[in-house]
Amino acid sequence: MRKWLPLVAVCLGSFMLIVDTTVVTVALPEIGTGLDASLSSLQWVMNIYTLVLAALTLSAGSVGDLLGRRRVYLLSLAVFAGASLLCALSPDPEMLIAARGLQGIGGAAMFVTSMALLATTYEGKDRGAAMGVWSAVIGVAAAVGPIFGGLLTQSMSWRAIFYVNIPISLVTMLLTRVCFTESRQPGGARIDFPGIITFALASGALTYGLIRAGEDSWTSPFTLGLFALAILSAVLFVVVEQRHPSPMLDISLMRNPSFLAIMLSTIASAWGFSSLVFTSLWLQSVVGLTPIKAGLALLPLAAATFAAATLTGKRLHDVSPRVTITAALILIGAGCAVNGLAIDGGSSWAAALPGLLVIGVGVGVGMPATGSAVFASVPPQRAGMGSGAMAAFRQLGQALGVAVLGLVFADVIRADLDGKVEDPAAAENALTSGRSTTLDVLHDAGAHGLTSVYLASAGLALVAALGTAVFIRKRVQAVPPYAPAGEEAAEAH
Predict the structure, then answer these.
(1) pLDDT tens, position by position, 180-216
(2) pLDDT tens digits for 444-458?
(3) How far apart are CA 185 and CA 21, in angstroms?
(4) What is the dihedral of CA 116, 117, 120, 124, to 10 degrees?
(5) Mean of the pLDDT values across residues 140-160?
(6) 85 CB contacts (<8 Å, ≥6 apart)?
(7) Which residue has the higher pLDDT, 80 or 25?
(8) Burial of 165 (0-12, 13-18, 19+ CB in 10 A)
(9) Rounded to two decimals, what is the model's pTM?
(10) Alpha-carbon Rg for the chain in angstroms
(11) Which residue from 2, 175, 199, 457 has the fewest beta carbons nearer than 10 Å?
């Protein structure tokens, strides 16, 4: 039993972190009323958390490698708990937004060091089992967040969704101190501050650009300026990493087709998972479910993810990641295609059930396989770098998915409503905000928007499956740490 206590410590922290990415969604109306917040302020309560996570995940993994993963995990839990207290006590929107940003700092470090701790604590089939359970907990947390938030908000207040993090953080810190020994990268390596700054600029500008593109347009000067800053910062990041004696990301990994295909599969999987945002809107605006019931309707996906990840994490340890990751992407694509073809304006929540179950199985098979493949591709002393890279690409996939699929969802609805209602803008806003409506024409438009989202996600997942089948080698081998820029990366055999 003691053998699995470290897994409990990691899963508690990860569950809390992922729940906090979705729990706030349900509480936003109450937050707006309680703090007299504008719509823009409420959007930033959500967006600042995503923005900070995207900017700092890779950096946090590198810092954990150098300073000690146990130490950084404990510090991240303390920061997250303190930020949660500030969120709960916030008297105005500005303080809440700032505290959510601080939560994102703690969350980024917590997420990547938790994966690194698993990678350095468990080996072989035990690592596969641990990654499977951890992946299952992530899936369940994403699904139960809205239910959890709805229950706390309705029975107590919106502040309770932040207060509850404090005792969970304290218990997790206690378990971490008892269960883990310190692990870090040996030698005299130093923190890569130029890499941290340039990567934060690149990922932060890209994520903020995607947010602004969804709010304004893809061609507005400010949005284009953010994308230009992201590209420039990314180029500078590559230059800096090639010259730094202890880079936070070994650029030679990107010359390994297997590693690059694994990262792209992470983007595709996260993109497909983003379709759940629009499924939740459809369940509330078209089907007419309350937020809590909408969360319950998504629970079958969480159950399928949990079952698949728990059952396959250990059993598929010896199977080539090319097989498991490709199969997972095919399942995600097939599930999205099923829902894209099955849902119409008269559908109930049950119409989405078959597709959600298939997507859940795909996510459950893919997450532990991807994690194990990533950790097999980097030296053990750079586990934080591997987990940081995977987390950064997953965050990028989620940001891209929400931004691009949001445009697809809104454009299809707009085209469907053209000439059919007196005020298309108001009708479109009702569907995209999740407010329940009874008009058949809106039901049809909302369903068409959702099916377009699912079909787009299906196409990307199946293309990514083709890429992983071609480029991921049979066995992934670690790239030697700090390979010189001219040295070829180790290939998988």
Answers:
(1) 777 666 655 577 788 888 888 887 788 778 777 766 7
(2) 888 888 999 999 999
(3) 30
(4) -90
(5) 78
(6) 162, 163, 166
(7) 80
(8) buried
(9) 0.73
(10) 22
(11) 2
pLDDT value for 321: 79
Q: What is the Cα–Cα distance from 391 to 282, expressed in whole angstroms?
A: 28
Cα 351 to Cα 375: distance, rounded to the nearest angstrom: 38
Per-residue tokens: 28? 């936003």
Give the contacts of 36 (CB within 8 A, at least 6 positions apart): 93
- Inter-residue contact 117 to 69 (CB < 8 Å): yes
Q: Which of 272, 263, 210 is nearest to 459 (CA)?
A: 272
The C-alpha atoms of residue 51 and residue 55 are separated, in whole angstroms, by 6
pLDDT at position 492: 35
Cβ-based burial of 227 (10 A; exposed 0-12, middle 13-18, buried ≥19): middle
344-354 burial code (b ≥16 CB/10 A, e <16): eeebebebbbe
Three-state helix/strand/coil letters over 61-104: HHHHHHHCHHHHHHHHHHHHHHHHHHHHHCCCHHHHHHHHHHHH
CA distances from 137 to 69, 368, 432 (A): 21, 11, 29
Q: What is the DSSP letter of 463?
A: H
Q: CB count, 10 Å around CB of 3?
A: 11
Quick check: 404 pLDDT over 50? Answer: yes
- For the stretch 165-182, pLDDT in tens is 999 999 999 988 888 777
Contact 203, 217 (CB under 8 A): no
CA atoms of 11 and 309, how far apart (whole Å): 14
Inter-axis angle of helices 165-179 and 5-35, nearest 10: 160
What is the largest distance, in Å, between two alpha-carbon atoms of the chain?
A: 69
180: left (phi over 0), alpha (psi -120 to 50) or beta: beta
Residue whose C-alpha is closest to residue 165's, from 106, 225, 227: 106
Amino acid identity, position 138: I
With contact defined as beta carbons under 8 Å apart, do 369 and 232 qualify?
A: no
439: left (phi over 0), alpha (psi -120 to 50) or beta: beta
Q: Give me the pLDDT at residue 13, please.
A: 85
Assess contact for 267 and 397: CB atoms under 8 A: yes
Q: Are 180 and 6 in contact (CB under 8 A)?
A: yes
C-alpha triplet 136, 142, 147: angle, nearest 5° = 120
Token pair, residue 417, equals: 């409503």
Mean pLDDT score, 208-230:
82
Q: Which two tokens stand for residue 249?
A: 């990301």
Q: Kindly tell me the burial class for residue 381, based on how many C-beta atoms sit within 10 Å of its own C-beta (0-12, 13-18, 19 or more).
A: middle
**Quick check: 306 and 139 in contact, CB under 8 A?**
yes
The pair of three-digit structure tokens given for residue 184, joined into one six-digit string = 């870090």
pLDDT-derived band at 487, boundaries 50, 70, 90: very low
